[in-house]
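Reviewer 2 asked us to include a model.

Predict the structure of this chain.
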Amino acid sequence: MTETDQTISTTERPKKESLLANLLLNIVIPTVILTKLSGDQWLGTKLAIVVALAFPLIYGGRDLLQSGRVNFFSALGIISITLTGGMSLLELDAKYIAIKEAAIPGLLGAATVVSLYTRWPLVKTLLYNDRILNTAKIAQALAQKGNEGPFERTLALASWMVASSFFLSSTLNYILAKMLLQSPPGTEAFNEELGKMTALSFPVIALPATLILMLTLFFLFRRIGKLTGLKLEEVVVAQ
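Predicted model (structure tokens):
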């Protein structure tokens, strides 16, 4: 193992996270608190929201501290949770939560498209980066075969695919919020609906968007192999 590989391995290890812990702290525990403990005989509506949202907030904050740098998506998740909690505690109309739920992934999709016209396409941050791929080796092979132009078009298409996953999340977020949040904010029924929305966000929103991202990654790997002549194991960074 080279010194570079050792450095990558060392920096990646602390970032590995437990899927079970992720699901428990971000979905299961907040859902149980909001749906089962919002009654006056338990935590009450406002305290239940504070306690439920504290779990994903603490989890996200711990991730930021352990990584030693600001992770864009972790930070965005913390902002989103804080906004949801603030709107709920202020008892704003549920339509504002629905708009917020749609706005964040929608803005990410728009940013992905806009970044195509800058020097820093977002797809390079998400998929085509040195943590996942040996970009230097890929660039050298592309130059040797004169395929830089076709590869840039590949990255553009991959960017649109990534953007489509964000736009899908935006649409599903809005529909889910509008369908479930029917009760007045500040009531036990509203908390239960917020809990159901949290529980359904993973299968209804995260899974389809993740599937699109996986298909995008598969498309990118396949095109890299075709344009460079390199095998997958030659360009993927060993973790």
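The chain has a mean pLDDT of 82. The first helix runs from residue 3 to 12. We have added this to the supplementary material.
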